[in-house]
TrEMBL record:
<feature type="transmembrane region" description="Helical">
    <location>
        <begin position="587"/>
        <end position="609"/>
    </location>
</feature>
<dbReference type="GO" id="GO:0005886">
    <property type="term" value="C:plasma membrane"/>
</dbReference>
<keyword id="KW-0630">Potassium</keyword>
<keyword id="KW-1133">Transmembrane helix</keyword>
<protein>
    <submittedName>
        <fullName>Solute carrier family 12 member 7-like</fullName>
    </submittedName>
</protein>
<feature type="region of interest" description="Disordered">
    <location>
        <begin position="1"/>
        <end position="70"/>
    </location>
</feature>
<dbReference type="GO" id="GO:0055064">
    <property type="term" value="P:chloride ion homeostasis"/>
</dbReference>
<feature type="domain" description="Amino acid permease/ SLC12A">
    <location>
        <begin position="133"/>
        <end position="230"/>
    </location>
</feature>
<dbReference type="GO" id="GO:1990573">
    <property type="term" value="P:potassium ion import across plasma membrane"/>
</dbReference>
<feature type="transmembrane region" description="Helical">
    <location>
        <begin position="210"/>
        <end position="239"/>
    </location>
</feature>
<feature type="domain" description="SLC12A transporter C-terminal">
    <location>
        <begin position="826"/>
        <end position="1087"/>
    </location>
</feature>
<comment type="similarity">
    <text>Belongs to the SLC12A transporter family. K/Cl co-transporter subfamily.</text>
</comment>
<feature type="domain" description="Amino acid permease/ SLC12A">
    <location>
        <begin position="429"/>
        <end position="702"/>
    </location>
</feature>
<dbReference type="Pfam" id="PF03522">
    <property type="entry name" value="SLC12"/>
</dbReference>
<feature type="transmembrane region" description="Helical">
    <location>
        <begin position="128"/>
        <end position="149"/>
    </location>
</feature>
<keyword id="KW-0769">Symport</keyword>
<keyword id="KW-0812">Transmembrane</keyword>
Length: 1087
């Protein structure tokens, strides 16, 4: 009976999750004008997340994220772009958001409206300018403890010229770093965060985290340095009687420093926890005032020396300087009322007060001389102080060009009257001690969130501060050397001038100006270090790049970093327990130099790469200056202390590797990525310039993965096997093909690629993933084989799993795809690896305890069969497996000679393998082989008939579909017309054709059972069966069998038979890897 097909046009609308579209039953699109006339509730209903494509495009109201009531599109001026407004907003909207941007740290409730309903408070616009916000903070951080406590000693030890060289090197280093920092700071909006933010966003999270932690450690040890300076001033100059440990032995003073330093640290910590940060910052102005007053007093004292030098004298015994804290008269004896009496010095060097007492030989032979400690600016003492006086520890401080009678060393009980060098002095040590005095150039960038115009203020303020402090330091070096006597300059603690700081006796009106000023300056600087270091650590922890630091990102409700403060106090206590300002200074020098080095590196890399985003407002920079600054930083690190430098580099390197392997993945658009891109581009171009030599060949693998219905990798062991093959360190591309169009399966393609990446991570496969959407799988495979990779980094080997279900497939698609892949890899001169039973291959966590990897070398197609076992044996999974090589000898071959030649060949290839030659003599074709071939051809013929029948049915259905499509199109063009009804009726001619076709099919089925197998197929099956028998006999228990893969037939009619041949060849074997070479030699006997 005839069949009637009725075709009704239906709108292609996706099902709505809310049900509005289907409930109304309307298929007409909603107009834009109607939407804008609706109220807000209706609009929200129409733009449901599951609405259809057409209605979604028409019904989405493109309002600002703040739900503004103003409608921007009533006038239809931007109707051409209305469908893109959700992803590409109007310029006016963008500018409005940028104008409300604040560069303060996110996360503070007062400055942003959080999602949980936190009340929005209008953010205060930063009002700090260049002078208050950058210049003065930098000035305060640069000028400090070293200037007041060690600069005079450095000048006396290194001389004016040596000190000038030290100051000049350090100041040039910081100036070049400031130039690089200014370029980075003016390249875009600078959020609060200072040096850590600039380095991490310029060099990436690995470098940023490493250098950020180094900067944190430097800031923390700076706190130790300032506290030790504070205690040194307190115990030596202010309250010398407050010492807990008495005596002049070498351990008393360090122990006092440890006790008082720990107490001072506790006071600073208590002050920090109970005082708001803003009050600490306000006190900074008071501390800076103390520094400026002290420097002004020093300059005033220099001017005063021209008029009237201070009345401070130094007592010398011969040419040796003496401590004058315990005597007033610099003489052996004095006359009082015509009576000669001995002095306190006589009592110290002699065994009694009497004139006939036995005295020290050096005291007897040399006279006491009293010289002026500060001869004055015009005295000419500058000539004596030009050159340095380096000396070992324990050597007395002596005046040059002063007469002296040498004698034996003084006795131990009189050592406390002489002045000695407490440490070995040499140029590099002085560099390490002095460098902390020029740190602090990051103070302005650390306050970038509080500046009115950070791009302008940071460069100007920082560079002016460096120039100002450099002038102060250089002028002090010259003035100290021109005004003060050399033996006084080398007196580190001022014992020869009645325990006054050497710079203090030069200051006017009193040394107490320097003592009090330096005390408050060091104390305030220590408190600020303990305030800034925990916040820096908190910023690093909140960035999430260092997992083990996450706990330090938490704090009190008001944002105070409690946990970070505890760690900072602990590290600071370590510096205090060292109890020596001279020993702590080189430590923090290392960390600051490391930070400055990477600032210069960041600027140099960005400049050389010329990335499009590198557009700094500060123009006075160049990559050569940054490179010079980087080189100078590295040189100063090793000049200060080579072992401290190595320790700092190791610490930074360990942090870098930890973040690289365990840290959070952050993409900040850093310069290292740009450097990698440039290096990759250069390397790819170089690879294209010359052909690849055999010695450089390594498997670059394209892995063809199959996905299941959930888009998960179906055979993850394929990736495990790829990882085990990666001893060649070649390229790996893991790919898959989805059938369809990219527009309809875009999301699925992204999901598939993510699943590939997840599987690669799970199987520890290093490489790239790629998902391709194609109209059919065959074209997708072809696209990957032709176009995967780039330039010289293209794949040369394809790895895929054996299609186990090719026989169960209702059509021959799987077979055809597999065989066409084999043909295309051969045509592309690429090797092919096909793994059978891939799911039974060992995983990366398994360890094969022995066994063999058997290579069946039937034909030579480049030597890949020999190379693969060697690469596998490099992996820990296959390391204990032995390699065996089998080859087949025919009737006319000399098997003994073949074995010798093969052993020699394996020896020259530097492979450890056992060699065996298997003889396969000609034999008659067995009945089993004949029957197996017959069944194969019968099955092939039956599948062919089934395919023809299916094709006929598909052709009929396609005709119906085409007519329905035509009627559908006509109904769309004719508005209001009723849908066309298509009648498909059987005719007499069609009925006769169908009956004839069925008779032919029955006849062909009868012929199928009477057919004889093709002789060529019989011979091929005989080879497969006989070779399989030998392989199974020899390699049944082996861990892996590698076989030469025969090529597919040139005649495509024999494709199905080809699959049967391969099945017969691998029958009875567990793990098999079919190998087909790429047509070139991949292994050589030559070096």
């Amino acid at each position: 009976m005839p069949t009637n097909f009725t075709v009704v046009p239906v709108e292609d609308v996706k099902a709505s999750g809310s049900g509005e579209a289907t409930a109304e039953g309307s298929s007409k699109p909603i107009s834009l004008g109607k939407i804008f006339r609706e109220n807000d509730d209706d609009v929200d209903t129409l733009q449901g997340p599951d609405s259809g494509d057409e209605s979604q495009k028409e019904s989405t109201p493109f309002f600002d994220s703040d739900n503004d009531t103003k409608n921007y599109y009533d006038d239809k001026n931007m109707a051409l772009y209305e469908e893109e407004m959700d992803s590409t907003p109007m310029v006016s909207s963008l500018l409005n958001k940028l104008s409300n941007y604040t560069n303060l740290f996110p996360g503070v409730c007062e400055h942003e409206e959080t999602e949980d309903g936190c009340r929005r408070v209008t953010a205060t616009v930063p009002q700090m300018g260049t002078f208050i916000g950058v210049f003065l903070p930098c000035l305060q951080n640069i000028l400090g403890v070293i200037l007041f406590l060690r600069l005079t000693w450095i000048v006396g030890t290194a001389g004016i010229l040596g000190s000038f060289a030290i100051v000049f090197m350090c100041c040039v280093c910081t100036l070049l770093t400031a130039i690089s920092m200014s370029a980075i700071a003016t390249n875009g909006v600078v959020p609060a965060g200072g040096a850590y933010y600039m380095i991490s966003r310029s060099l990436g999270p690995e470098f940023g985290g490493a250098v950020g932690l180094c900067f944190y450690l430097g800031t923390t040890f700076a706190g130790s340095l300032y506290i030790l300076g504070t205690i040194e001033i307190l115990l030596i100059y202010i309250v010398p009687t407050a010492t807990v440990f008495k005596g002049h032995d070498g351990d008393a003073m360090p122990n006092n420093m440890r006790i008082y330093g720990t107490c001072c640290l506790y006071v600073h910590t208590h002050t920090h926890t109970h005082t708001h940060t803003q009050y600490v910052n306000k006190l900074a102005l008071v501390f800076l005032s103390c520094v400026i007053l002290s420097i002004m007093a020093t300059y005033a004292g220099v001017i005063r020396t021209i008029i009237e030098p201070p009345e401070f004298n130094v007592c010398l015994l011969g040419n040796r300087s003496l401590k004058n804290e315990n005597f007033e008269v610099c003489a052996k004896k004095e006359v009082i009322k015509n009576t000669t009496i001995t002095t306190e010095l006589w009592n110290h060097f002699c065994n009694s007060k009497h004139l006939n007492a036995t005295c020290d030989d050096y005291f007897t032979l040399n006279e006491l001389t009293e010289i002026q400690a500060i001869p004055g600016l015009l005295s000419g003492v500058i000539k004596d102080n030009l050159w340095g006086e380096y000396a070992p520890a324990g050597m007395t401080i002596e005046k040059k060009n002063q007469s002296s009678v040498p004698t034996q060393e003084p006795t131990t009980d009189r050592d406390d009257i002489y002045l000695f060098n407490d440490i070995n002095t040499y140029f590099t040590l002085l560099v390490g001690i002095y460098f902390p005095s020029v740190t602090g150039i990051m103070a302005g960038s650390n306050r970038s969130g509080d500046l009115r115009d950070a791009k302008r203020s940071i460069p100007i303020g920082t560079i002016l501060a460096i120039l100002t402090t450099s002038f102060i330091y250089i002028s002090c070096v010259v003035l100290f050397g021109a005004c003060i006597e050399g033996v006084v300059l080398r007196d580190k603690f001022g014992y020869s001038v009645k325990k006054n700081p050497v710079i203090g006796i030069l200051a006017w009106p009193s040394p107490w100006v320097i003592v009090i000023g330096s005390f408050f300056s060091c104390s305030g600087a220590g408190l600020q270090s303990l305030t800034g270091a925990p916040r820096l650590l908190q910023a690093i922890a909140r960035d999430g790049i260092v997992p083990f630091l996450r706990v330090f990102g938490h704090g009190k409700a008001n944002g105070e970093p409690t946990w970070a403060l505890l760690l900072t106090v602990g590290i600071c206590e370590i510096g205090i327990l060292i109890a020596s300002l001279d020993a702590v200074a080189p430590i923090l020098s290392m960390f600051f130099l490391m930070c400055y080095l990477f600032v210069n590196l960041a600027c140099a890399i960005q400049t050389l790469l010329r990335t499009p985003n590198w557009r700094p407002r500060f123009r006075f920079y160049h990559w050569t200056l940054s490179f010079l600054g980087m080189s100078l930083c590295l040189s100063l690190m090793f000049i200060c202390s080579w072992y401290y430098a190595l320790v700092a580099i190791v610490i930074a390197g360990c942090i870098y590797k930890y973040i690289e392997y365990r840290g959070a993945v952050k993409e900040w658009g850093d310069g290292i990525r740009g450097l990698s891109l440039n290096a990759a581009r250069y390397a790819l171009i170089r690879l294209e310039e010359s052909p690849l030599h055999t010695k450089n060949w390594r498997p670059q693998i394209l892995v063809m993965c199959k996905l299941d219905s959930d888009l998960a990798v179906k055979h993850p062991r394929l990736l495990s096997f790829t990882t085990q093959l990666k001893a060649g360190k070649g390229l790996t591309i893991v790919s898959t093909v989805l059938e369809g169009t990219f527009m309809t399966r875009e999301d699925e393609a992204k999901t598939a690629e993510q699943n590939l990446k997840a599987a690669m991570v799970a199987e520890r496969t290093k490489g790239f993933s790629h998902a391709v959407v194609s109209s059919n799988l065959r074209d997708g495979f072809s696209i990957l084989i032709q176009s995967a990779g780039l330039g010289g980094m293209k794949h040369n080997t394809v790895l895929m799993a054996w299609p186990v279900t090719w026989r169960q497939a209702q059509n021959s698609t799987a077979t055809r795809n597999f065989i066409e892949t084999v043909r295309e890899t051969t045509a592309a001169n690429q090797a092919l690896l096909v793994a059978k039973n891939i799911d039974s291959f060992p995983g990366n966590q398994q360890r094969l305890e022995g066994g063999t990897i058997d290579v069946w070398w039937i034909v030579h197609d480049g030597g890949l069969l020999m190379l693969l076992p060697f690469l596998l044996s490099q992996h820990k999974v296959w390391r204990k497996c032995k390699m065996r090589v089998f080859t087949v000898a025919q009737l006319n071959d000399n098997s003994i000679q073949m074995k010798k030649d093969l052993q020699m060949f394996i020896y020259h290839l530097r492979l450890d393998a056992k060699v065996e030659v298997v003889e396969m003599h000609d034999s008659d074709i067995s009945a089993f082989t004949y029957e197996k071939t017959l069944r194969m051809e019968q099955r092939t013929e039956m599948l062919k008939q089934m395919q023809l029948s299916r094709t006929e049915r598909e052709r009929e259905a396609q005709l119906i579909h085409d007519r329905n499509t035509a009627s559908h199109s006509t109904s769309d063009r004719e508005a209001g017309a009723s849908p066309e009804r298509v009648h498909m009726t059987w005719t007499k001619e069609k009925l006769l054709n169908e009956k004839n076709r069925q008779r032919e099919s029955i006849g062909q089925v009868k012929d199928m059972f009477n057919m004889k197998p093709n002789q060529s197929n019989v011979r091929r099956m005989h080879t497969a069966v006989k070779l399989n028998e030998v392989v199974v006999k020899k390699s049944r228990d082996s861990q892996l069998v590698l076989l030469n893969m025969p090529g597919p037939p040139k005649n495509m009619k024999g494709d199905a038979n080809y699959m049967e041949f391969l099945e017969a060849l691998m029958e009875g074997l567990d793990r098999v890897l079919l190998v087909r070479g790429g047509g070139r030699e991949v292994i050589t006997i030559y070096s």
